[in-house]
Design brief:
The protein is of the alpha+beta class and 450 residues long. It has helices at residues 54-65, 89-98, 119-127, 212-218, 238-246, 249-259, 269-292, 299-302, 304-320, 325-332, 356-359, 393-400, 405-412, 443-449; strands at 2-4, 13-14, 22-31, 34-42, 46-47, 109-112, 131-135, 161-166, 169-175, 179-184, 197-203, 231-237, 381-383, 390-391, 426-427, 429-431. It has 14 helices and 16 strands.
Length: 450
Amino acid sequence: MMVRFTGRSEHISLIKSKPTPEGFKIIALCDKGYTFSFLYTSRTQSFTGLTYPSHFINSLETTREVNSHTCYAPHCGTQNATEIIHLRPTSRAVIQLCLTLPYQTHRFVLYCDNYFSNIPLFHILRSYGIAACGTARPHSAEYPRIFKMNQKVTQLPWNTISAVVIRDVLAVLWQDKTLVRFLTTAFGANPALPENVEMRLRKRPHITQSNRNLIESGWPTDPVTGAAPASQILPLPTLSVKYNLHMGGVDIADQRRSYYCIQLSCVRYWLSLFFWLLDVTVVNSYLLAQEVFPSTQKKFIKEHRDFRVRLAWNLVLDGARGVDKTWAESLCYSHEPRRRGGQFNPCSVPAGNYHYNRRNGYVSKYSELPTCRLIHGDHRLVRREPTTRRLCFFCRFIEQHKQSSEFLEKVRQLDRPRSVFGIVHRTRFECLFCKVPLCQESCFHSFHAI
């Protein structure tokens, strides 16, 4: 993950291929967009907060006192305790993230791309009981030399699978439209076994001069029409199907955060990290709400945007309960809209052209309902003196926003008589707390409920 920050800091990284090229790089453990744990990285100090497992440190101390062959895992007695020291910091970070999972009581399969995959890492994860699957680079640690072939030059028959076991890790070479390299401790590669093959619908790749023979062998032409089918059900390795199905949890988390990002331009680096943490928390809360209430029909749980709006209003109302009523009422009475009231004050009535003699009754299509209607206070209708009848604020607001279908739908859900729709009434009453003119029959309760 990349947290956007373009200010001065020795810890930011520059990766031009990323959608966010400059900022803080974070290694995260995610599943379907839910961020389970993460580690910060630094351009100058590598990983921050990277430590060894506690039982590994105890085993290492015992190794120095007794011999040089002691298990670093509490339930495995065949591995060398010093192996984890020779891992690169990136692999150690993956182990530290995976150990935050309840791996002692549940079974997990870790999916990662070729940036993280290597045989020593998968071998150590297997000793903890954590299975892994991922694509691999030919120059990764201990990768078999027999599979280090140039995929631009070497072309095997389509769906050819070769595998070799190295330190209890299965290295697989599969010929799809290109050579694909896998490392796994979770799946097999023998195509004769039914659990290692799944039938999937595949689209025919684009045929070029270099891959014509390969594609024609996998997607044979129809003997009647003489044309190759656009798609075909083919037997594919299970590890490839599962990898494509479960891979990309970090990308989904980035995608969900990008929809309604809270990130603001800031100079202090810790603010950008705070906004990122706030985004992660909101997305995780939304996913947990969907998991807890899977069959609900409430829109504020099913829709991401409505969930954020509901969350924001709940925070506003929670803070409003502690607001001093006299202070909130003084804001509504403010004679200085540019300094205290008007559009700069969330508790005041929309300010219009900022003239005090027009401010209380001015409503336009840019006006918004004042937040003071939701503050706990003395909301009741009182007769205004003198008894001049003024236009109802809520009636005018409905008239100005009648083009908004979403707002009209909310109004129709209120308990309002159908006869009052589209009519702007005059009234002698106003809300004692909000100081806006409202109809006694229908608008008072609607104004405070919407």
